[in-house]
Specification:
Helix content is 63%, strand content 4%. The mean pLDDT is 86. It has 2 helices and 2 strands. By secondary structure, the chain is mainly alpha-helical. A two-stranded antiparallel sheet has the order 1-2.
Length: 90
Amino acid sequence: MVERATKFTSDGVKVSSKFYKGLSKFLINPAVSGLMGFATMFTVVILVELLNYLLGIKKSFNVDISDVTLSSLGFICFFLISILSNFKKD
């Protein structure tokens, strides 16, 4: 019986195939980066909306679909940066 050497990632997931490494490198890690970009942009948009309300520039505090659309640009930018960084020469 031949045993494979098992490796574990930092989060405890067992890595034993090239498929998982490729999936992680080109889909999972960029998606996590994209979500962090979305969260960052959304937080900034919410803070700006809140400051506009507190300073009296706007009469009401509301989040529109345009704010979510703007935050999705953060997802796209961070996702693309993470994907393209996999192709750079070392």
